[in-house]
Amino acid sequence: MIQFKKIRWKNFLSTGNAFTEVQLNKTKSTLIIGDNGAGKSTVLDALTFGLFGKPFRSINKHQLINSVNQGGTEVEIEFTIGNKEYLIKRGIKKNYFTIYQNGVPLNQDASVRDYQEFLEKSILKLNYKSFTQIVILGNSSFVPFMQLKPSDRRAIIEDLLDIEIFSVMNQLLKVRVSENKDDTATVDISLGLAKGEKENLEFLINKLKENKSTQIEKNKKDIEKHEQILKEYSKDIEDFSGKIKTLSESISDERTIRGEIASLYDYQKGIEKGITKCNEDMSYYENTDKCDTCNQEIPETHRDKMVSEFHGKMHELSSGLLQLGNKIKKKEERTHEIDVILDDITDQESGSLKVKNSIAACQEYIKKVNAQNEEISQIEEHTEQTKKALEEAKEDIEIYTIEKEKISNEKYLYEIAGNLLKDGGIKAKIIKQYLPIINKYISAHLSKMDFYVSFELDEGFNETIKSRYRDEFTYDSFSEGEKMRIDLALLFTWRAIAKLKNSVNTNLLILDEVFDSSLDTSGTDEFLKILYDLAGDVNVFVISHKGEILYEKFDTTIRFEKHKNFSRIA
User: Fold this and answer.
1) Beta-sheet strand order (sheet of 20-23)
2) At what angle do helices 480-501 and 426-448 cross, to 10 degrees?
3) Is the pLDDT of residue 86 over 90?
4) Per-residue confidence at 520, pLDDT binned at 50, 70, 90?
5) Which pLDDT score is estimated for 535?
6) Share of the chain above pLDDT 70, in %
7) Which residue from 538, 542, 540 is spatially nearest to 1, judged by alpha carbons?
8) d(C-alpha 84, C-alpha 77), whole Å
9) What region, left, alpha or beta, does residue 298 occupy, with left being phi > 0 and alpha being psi -120 to 50 degrees?
């Protein structure tokens, strides 16, 4: 379990050149208050910057530097894991990043990126996305779990269930598969060369019985024939190139035409919206007797005038829409012509490629026949040597055949392992086992906040939400207050699962302005009950504007204030 103890920072955002320090494990519940801009949410950015090298809110890292002092930005975080004491120090201007374990700085020979990866994977065992789903819930740049992409949802769940190792294994397997593919290609080439060598040597030995001069002359004629074919192929290449150039020049306006069509479609949408608006306004005057604003009778003459004006405007827009449609039609006719020419260019390029391949094959054949002539001219002097080389080629064929079978067996095993390590393999089975527990925790937390809906996540982390009457909803169909209850229920669920798995277990929970946005009085009270249930092993920090109604509900209150344009703890 990660026990966060202390965080301190200076020259950070609006904080000056004196360290601001917050004890993270001093009391079970702490309320952080202050005016807007006083710096009460700075602890969020300090935490994420100290641990992950980037701010919590959506700003550039260099915007964390105090704009007055222009440098000397420092953040220090102390925490323990088991019996090991850790201290993280990170700074901007001057830039540094150091990890201390039991007072001794860890080796930092590798790059900063590798050092950061070591911190996240080997020490914290926690990445930025999981941290901002389990430890911090804020309003500035926090993206609720339900608003994440399915891939990001999966990454968080895998991190929680400590099964990201299978993703790592899958990446390693991909390297092995790639190597196996390369080995297969290498062995196939070697085997093919050995077989080709065997055929050539057998051919040479057989030719020992034939007239050497006759064979050489025959080969020369064959070479002349293929050289003539090469000349014809070269002419074909020139023809293809000329056609491709001509066709390409004929569609030089392609980008302009497609851009104009896109602009015309956008303009068309604008006119259609204008027609819809005119129709709505005209319908309003046709069906309304009184003004919605002042509640006075609308004169008949005024209504007729407005209806007539909107009708005329609709006529103008419809006429414009018709003209625009004709323009679009002409442009689309041109794009059709361009597409036809592009297909023709593709055909020409394909034909050119085939001819080039034929040229390469023809050149290779000429080279091979020339080599045969050289061999034939010396065949009588190397008879025994040729027979020996043939035996060696046969041995090579046997060796490469055995090697190919071995690599094929490896490929089969890698395919089985690949199926197991895919998202639908081992990970899916583990997630499937935990889904009932996850859904049970979510429902329990929603019930504690008097939000009685059936909420379930499936294996693809898509939600199914039903009301007490079994009507189906989506997350986006709820009010902001109801969404906040769902977000909180998920936050507490992830913490419970993390504790259950002991994968991402920590004493720290920070909630930024949760009580100031979408939770009503009832939701706030029920949420506080959940916080009290957590109080046994969690240090909860709540950042809020509602200080006057929350004082007595927390063990400690920290007030931030601005003093001479710098933030400090009052």
Assistant:
1) 20-23, 2-10, 73-81, 84-92, 96-101, 104-105
2) 130
3) yes
4) low
5) 47
6) 89
7) 538
8) 14
9) beta
